[in-house]
Amino acid sequence: MTILITGGSGFIGQGLVKFLLEKSIPVKVVDLNPFPNPDIETIVGDLRDNEVVKKAVHKVEGIIHLAALTSVLESIKNPFDVYRTNLETTSLLLEAGRRQEIQNFILASTNAVVGNKLNTKINENSSLNPLTPYGGTKAASEMLLSAYASSYGMITSSIRMTNIYGTGMQHKDSFIPRLMKAVINKSGVEIFGDGEQLRDYLYLTDTVYAFYLALKENISGPLTTGYGESISVNALYDLVCETTGTQIPVKRVEAKSGEMRAVEVDISRARSFGFKPLVSIREGLAKTWQDLSSSVL
């Protein structure tokens, strides 16, 4: 059973390719960038091009769709680009998969589809109320998966992720690598608002295991993932300072529109399929810092 991984040359994609190969599951990659290992079959191209999509889905039995524009705040600046990249490509892939009778379609989604849920944990039954074009495109993509599952018998699942971190983040600009790069560059970081926003951080290897479970167990519908414990941005900042042995200069700036105040997730459904996060935030930050600093310093 060959699995197509869109966005397979990216941070999560490379981790997923490695994991599936270790499970003896053949993979194929489509990405804007070549895969680092030339032995992996890769289609280099833009998934907004239907011809690229046709080449990508040829002779595969399942699709894990990671390719996306993922910056929540950037999506506010460029909503149409996010629509084309996130929603249009999902539609093209689903239709190509339907025509080829592909069995499994797994989407990298986000808990941002639900918007703010203060004083309550997010789960699969939480109502959809995205705050940004990014969250909106992911919510719409989830609806397309549901429609194709109901109409054509596909097994579709949406893995709703929290904040993912881990080794291989050298080119990422999310908050954890931004903090660590500030240490390396002897610079500082900005923290939006009061820094008491709550976030759930899940390590890369735990993340890719969730995708593997969705494939292995033929999971249908949304699946809420995360570590299951949230910490504030301020607490994360303190932990990174502790991990790196550096007091990182910080500037407090105005909070951004579209930012969720709290991300606290209930991962009971994922646990029922055998999902069990293994890497704590302290251990994960230590591994990430060791990897990032050794590759740059």
How is this structure best described in words?
The chain is of the alpha/beta class. The protein has two domains: 3-165 and 202-228 and 264-278, 3-Layer(aba) Sandwich (Rossmann fold), CATH 3.40.50; 175-196 and 231-262 and 288-296, UDP-galactose 4-epimerase, domain 1. The protein has helices at residues 11-22, 50-57, 72-77, 79-99, 133-152, 175-185, 204-216, 233-244, 268-272, 281-296; strands at 3-6, 27-31, 42-44, 62-65, 104-110, 155-161, 163-165, 189-192, 198-203, 221-224, 230-232, 250-253. Strands 3-2-1-4-5-6-10 form a seven-stranded parallel β-sheet, with helices on both faces. A three-stranded mixed β-sheet has the order 7-9-11. Strands 8-12 form a two-stranded parallel sheet. The longest helix is centred in the first third of the chain and has 21 residues, at 79-99.
Features:
single chain, alpha/beta, Rossmann fold, 7-stranded parallel sheet, globular
Oligomeric organization of the protein chains: single chain
Q: CATH homologous superfamily of the largest domain, by name? A: NAD(P)-binding Rossmann-like Domain
Query: Looking across the biggest beta sheet, what order are the strands in?
Result: 3-2-1-4-5-6-10
Number of strands: 12
Helices and strands, with pairings:
Elements (H helix, E strand, L loop, with lengths): L2 E4 L4 H12 L4 E5 L10 E3 L5 H8 L4 E4 L6 H6 L1 H21 L4 E7 L22 H20 L2 E7 L1 E3 L9 H11 L3 E4 L5 E6 H13 L4 E4 L5 E3 H12 L5 E4 L14 H5 L8 H16 L1
Parallel strand pairs: 1-2, 1-4, 2-3, 4-5, 5-6, 6-10, 7-9, 8-12
Antiparallel strand pairs: 9-11
Helix pairs in contact: 1-7, 2-4, 4-5, 6-8, 6-10, 8-10
